[in-house]
Amino acid sequence: MSKKEKRHPWSWIPTLYFAEGIPYVIVMTVSVVMYKDLGVSNTDIALFTSWLYLPWVIKPLWSPIVDIVKTKRLWTVSMQALLALGFIGVAFTLSLPLTSFFWPSIVFLGLMALASATHDIAADGFYLLALDKDQQSFFVGIRSTFYRAATLFGNGVLVFMAGYFTKEYFNGEAEPAWMIVFGVAAALFLLFFIYHKFMLPYPAEDSPRVEEGKDKIKEFFLAFAEFFKQKKIGLILFFLLVFRLPEAQLVKMVAPFLKDPVLKQGMGLSNEQFAIVYGTAGILALTIGGILGGIAISRHGLKKWLWPMLLAMHLPIIAFWYLAATPPHDIFIIGVAVVVEQFGYGFGFAAYMVYMMYVSDNKYKTSSYAICTGFMALGMMIPGMWSGWLEETVGYENFFLIVLLTAIPSFFATWLVPLDKDFGKKVK
């Protein structure tokens, strides 16, 4: 079989970006639901799943290696095979006694996080090499759509599946249900590996580039210097780290809150209900909020929308406080609260993304933006670590109030941070 340099983008972009999104959502959010089902404490869930952010924090540091060693095509399909093995590994750990499964499962999830972050680097680089400039622009929305579809698949379909099998086939035992879920994910990634091994094109430019790789390493350090010599760099980093401080704590406790019984100030949702309310309706609201946020900034510029988007991101946390303070609630009210919070977060996050573009607007745009994404992940990782301990100490009602108060540093950061008036505004 001849190696085709070109294949129609529709034959591989949807599957490639669906595959890129699945491991991230499973490692970051689906694992939280799984551990909650298996009786792990909120403190341990938040602390150890937050550590799994680390590969995404530091992935810019090894991105030049993907350019130096072998091809991006090979990196992409190899990581998919490794991820399939990782899913099998997690499924195997669930067969162990409840007292001994936790640490082995965390290790396998950590390896999956490392493979997933590397897959992100390789797949995004392959996308740039395999497509012409006009195709790159046309398919950017397509790839984002299928990445978001992977989030729906993880938080919606897989979580629903776990709940259904637990209830219908295993008499309330969650372990075998989650073994099946991770087995399904492993089989899916085996199919991705086989499909992409044969269907990804072989771009002529996708070759080991030792000299270019060395240049990228040099560029990365030059970009570091360029990025950190900006005026008011301290305020810029403060903004990047605290703008999402409340959400960084909230995101690790949403699943436990929605699933814990009413006696513990939770909402008592089943996995199936969680999959519909948060994994489907919530993700759709998040997506719509992000789209509308991008449109708003393109029309009026970031400076005009920064404060409204900051408020939109944080104030809806009041909805979760209300749920915790006045239980019980029917599923419709819970769903409305989730949709409002997720829409506000999506709308506000658009400002954060555009601000990262603003501070990366120099001659090393790509590397500078990678540095920003590292700080973005760090800003989610560290606060998430203490969120479970905080909730178990004060309860959900007080937890949400404290989380809302932690928005104060983001208000100071937004007030002080340097920003050009018209940045982000579409030129007519």
Question: How would you sum up this structure, described in words?
Answer:
The chain is mostly helical and 428 residues long. The protein folds into 2 domains: 1-208, MFS general substrate transporter like domains (Growth Hormone, Chain: A), CATH 1.20.1250.20; 210-428, Growth Hormone, Chain: A. 78% of the residues lie in helices and 0% in strands. It has 17 helices and no strands. The protein has helices at residues 13-37, 42-51, 54-58, 63-68, 72-93, 102-130, 133-168, 174-199, 210-228, 233-242, 245-259, 271-300, 302-314, 317-325, 331-359, 365-405, 408-416. Helix 1 packs antiparallel against helix 8 (174-199), helix 12 runs parallel beside helix 15 (331-359) and helix 14 packs parallel to helix 16. It is globular, with a radius of gyration of 22 Å. The model has no long low-confidence stretch (mean pLDDT 88).
